[in-house]
Amino acid sequence: MIACDVNPLAVATTRGNAIEQGCDIEVVEGGPGDIGVWMPSEGVDIIAWNLPYLDPTSGEELGPLEDSALIENNGDLALLQALSENPELLNPNGVIYLVHSSNRLGTRIPLVWRRAGWATRNVEQVAVGDEMLTVIACWKPFEESVTLHLDSCESTNDEILDKIGAKQGDLITSAHQTSGRGYRNRTWTSSIRNFMGSWALNPKSIEKGPELIQYAASLSVADTISVFKNLGLPSHSWTHCSALEELGIRVKWPNDIWLRTPSKIGKLCGILTQGRTKGDETRVALGIGLNQIEVPDVEHSIGWETLFKADLDDLIPVLHASIASTLEVHDLIKPISPDTVLSSVFAAMRMTFCEGEPTSFGIDKKGGIYGKNQTVRMSENWCWIWR
After folding, report:
1. 203, 293 in Cβ contact below 8 A?
2. What is the separation, in whole angstroms, between the first and last Cα of the chain?
3. CA separation for the pair 51, 354 (Å, rounded)
4. What domains are defined for the chain?
5. pTM score, two decimals?
6. CA distances from 375 to 43, 188, 327 (A)
7. Which helix (H) or strand (E) holds 4?
8. What is the mean pLDDT of each run of 10 residues along the chain (387 residues)?
């Protein structure tokens, strides 16, 4: 084990405490900005970093040690750069734990790491006065997975469910689906510039219910949009959903994402979870269709180019990391809390409840929707009408 700190007094204290407690730990002075000084000589499974996160206060003077230890100095970016230049620092399936506060930096850190292709997830939070200290995990998404692109197939979900030796995170994309399906076997129309793909999920993901998978996936798509719009990530805080509302993003129960502009409202994304059990084996496939451009001959469709410019090659790594952020089962990382998923999805649906019919007021923990004058699940056969 190796530990580091930019404050020499903290280094001396840690060394003394380690001796008293009989801990075998190397303590050095420095941090991610001091490339080479703090780095372990071989790869590690976990890197934990308590980032300086305070905003400088006007009129207050700090000494150089206090300033370097307390004031935000882009230490997470230095660590990200060090890992990019020295990927052997972190062993396969290793994880980074970062501590930050509920301030500007706390919004930026997950965004920057996700943009760089890392999965991110809140794993612990504690309120300290008027701030929220948060521990987030950052890791390389689905490290043992493979990605396969097909020129054409019947359905990418079927390809995942039929794939021999499918591993968690395996992704199959296709330029054209001849039998693409949406919710309740509705047709998903292909277009060569749009994203159509499916992920193999860990069978444990189904234990919390297929509706939670679809909700989590909708957050992953919302996160992806947020990355390209430089906004806070909804999977990290439900409060970030309000910025997406202002853009016109509408999450529609149970599995669609629509975009409302001053001139049009159209379907941007469809999500479909399917499972298959054969003998003792359970397979789970998550399919996502995400439009880059409006689909010809489809009346209510719209593409992400209405919001931002990005090619498929730009979008897929971020979307892949975002799917892992909400759904990957990882030995060193707590799963995302169902309450986190439900609260953020509910926040993302608020405008949908206001703008759609039948009148709806919320979602329950079993995936249903609360309707007017009742607190029971509504029928899945009803049709949503936008006002």
Report:
1. no
2. 60
3. 40
4. 31-139 (3.40.50.150), 147-386 (3.30.930.10)
5. 0.86
6. 53, 32, 29
7. strand 2-5
8. 77 88 83 66 86 55 48 67 88 92 80 96 87 90 95 90 92 83 53 87 83 92 97 95 95 88 92 86 92 84 94 96 96 92 91 80 75 57 68
